[in-house]
């Protein structure tokens, strides 16, 4: 019996656990998925829901209805991984042993420590509540300057911010507000994306659509009183509405287990995603 434990029941963890069931008989697999939430939330659609009137409840699905019968679903949080003993310790002290471990924990957003998240003119689209707040604002928006920027790098799904910017541009055109609106996309690099070929295309699209790209712009703080984005480089960029992506970090179990760096990110082989020096993870 080959024991495989998957930690994290988001889209990736759920998908890999279910796909492994197709190999369960051939390779004698015992598959366990650890996920404390009783539902799966499809986050990628939030970028679209920011601009429509659909109910976000449609993005929630119960976990027990999504997992295959051959997957052992444990509705509990993984507290720590002890790699030398190949065991996972759950929050209630239960110990599970594995032969292979798959980490699909994703990132967490530090919105509760992100002091600007409740400000009226500061938004993001990385959680249902934040997306709903933006959605209500954009319905009332009648023109002005909208600034979009990450607060830290790396952040989850970098194409999302570009996609959001293009959807915003199209949305404002449909409402005949594009001529009354300045869109600025701020980025810490010299180009608007990390992949060279894609960066060229995105830059051309920004230029064609009249989206102002501001390179080498690293977030430091926000002057809430005067509606100004202030960068480490000393730039002060005024806004009417600011879309500031939340601070990202790795999950606590990664830090607690010593598997990642101080921010909880795990070093892996970029081709195989194997955790460096740990052949079973």
3D structure, described in words:
The chain is built from eight helices and 19 strands. The chain is α/β, with parallel strands linked by helices and 281 residues long. The strands form six sheets. Strands 11-18-12-13-14 form a five-stranded parallel beta sheet. Strand 12 (144-150), helix 6 and strand 13 form a beta-alpha-beta unit. The protein is elongated. The two termini are 17 Å apart.
What labels would you give this structure?
281 residues, alpha/beta, five-stranded parallel beta sheet, four-stranded parallel beta sheet
- What's the shape? elongated
**Looking across the biggest beta sheet, what order are the strands in?**
11-18-12-13-14
Largest sheet: 5 strands, parallel
For this structure, the quaternary state is: single chain
Euclidean distance between termini CA atoms:
17 Å
Return the structural class: alpha/beta
List the uncertain runs.
Answer: none
Average pLDDT number: 92
The helix fraction, in percent, is: 10-25%
How many helices? The count is 8
What is the number of beta strands? 19
Q: Report the radius of gyration as a whole number of Å.
A: 21 Å
- Strand percentage: 25-35%
SSE string, helices as H and strands as E: EHHEEHEHEEEEEEEHEHEHEEEEEEH
């Amino acid at each position: 019996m080959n024991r495989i434990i998957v930690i994290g029941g988001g889209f990736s963890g759920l998908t890999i656990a279910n796909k492994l069931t197709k190999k369960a008989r051939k390779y004698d697999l015992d598959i366990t998925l650890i996920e404390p939430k009783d539902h799966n939330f499809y986050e990628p659609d939030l970028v679209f829901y920011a601009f429509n009137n659909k109910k976000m409840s449609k993005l929630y699905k119960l976990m027990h209805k999504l997992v295959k019968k051959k997957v052992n679903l444990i509705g509990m949080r993984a507290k720590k991984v002890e790699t030398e003993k190949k065991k996972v310790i759950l929050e209630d002290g239960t110990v599970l042993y594995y032969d292979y471990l798959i980490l699909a924990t994703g990132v967490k957003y530090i919105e509760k420590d992100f002091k600007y998240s409740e400000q009226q003119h500061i938004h993001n689209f990385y959680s249902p509540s934040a997306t709903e707040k933006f959605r209500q604002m954009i319905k009332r928006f009648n023109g002005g300057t909208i600034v979009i920027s990450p607060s830290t790098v790396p952040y989850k799904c970098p194409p999302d911010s570009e996609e959001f910017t293009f959807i915003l541009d199209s949305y404002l055109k449909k409402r005949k507000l594009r001529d009354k609106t300045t869109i600025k996309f701020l980025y810490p690099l010299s180009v608007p994306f990390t992949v060279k070929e894609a960066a060229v295309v995105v830059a051309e699209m920004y230029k064609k659509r009249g989206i102002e790209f501001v390179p080498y712009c690293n977030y430091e703080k926000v002057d809430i009183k005067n509606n100004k984005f202030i960068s480490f480089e000393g730039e002060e960029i005024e806004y009417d509405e600011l879309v500031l992506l939340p601070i990202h970090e790795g999950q606590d179990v990664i830090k607690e287990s010593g598997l990642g760096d101080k921010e909880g990110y795990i070093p892996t082989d970029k081709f195989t995603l194997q955790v460096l020096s740990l052949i079973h993870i």
